[in-house]
Amino acid sequence: MNEMRLAAFFKALGHPTRLRIMERIASGECCVSEIETELDCRQANISQHLAILRDRGLVVPVRQGKRVCYQLTDRRIADMIRRARSLIEGLADKQMAA
User: Fold this and answer.
1) Under the phi-then-psi rule, with left for phi > 0, alpha for psi from -120 to 50, and beta for the rest, what region is 90?
2) Which of 4, 30, 31, 56 has a beta carbon 3.0–4.6 Å from 12's, enabling a disulfide?
3) pLDDT tens-digit readout, 16-59
4) Percentage of residues in the chain with pLDDT exceeding 90?
5) Helix (H/G/I), strand (E/B), else coil: 12
6) pLDDT value for 12
7) Sheet holding 59-64, edge to edge
């Protein structure tokens, strides 16, 4: 994998709202209205962030009748986010202990 694609991948996850969206989708397929309610963000803002996540290949839309829901393209993304969160928390604990 080239460095540009890897950087784009991490950049997509680098925004707090997109990270929250990814964590929500990681817990199960969901629609924009569900994300909007849980994150307390406007639909237009959620849609903009989802467009970036789609463009980077992190989520895929799934049509359910008139609704469009989203799911992760690969379950390993959820695992990576969990591991990164654990790593950051561990680093913070070490900094506080020092």
Assistant:
1) alpha
2) 56
3) 999 999 999 999 999 999 999 999 999 999 999 999 999 999 99
4) 77
5) helix
6) 94
7) 30-31, 67-72, 59-64
The Cα–Cα gap between 14 and 64 comes to: 29
Residue matched to tokens 């009748």: 65
Measured distance between the N- and C-terminal CA atoms of the chain, rounded to whole angstroms: 37
Residues 6+ away with beta carbon under 8 Å from 56 = 8, 9, 12
User: CATH says 3-97 is which class?
Assistant: mainly alpha
CA-atom Rg of the chain in angstroms: 15
Q: Name 18's Cβ contacts closer than 8 Å, sequence gap at least 6.
A: 12, 49, 52, 53
User: Tokens 């992760």 identify what position?
Assistant: 72
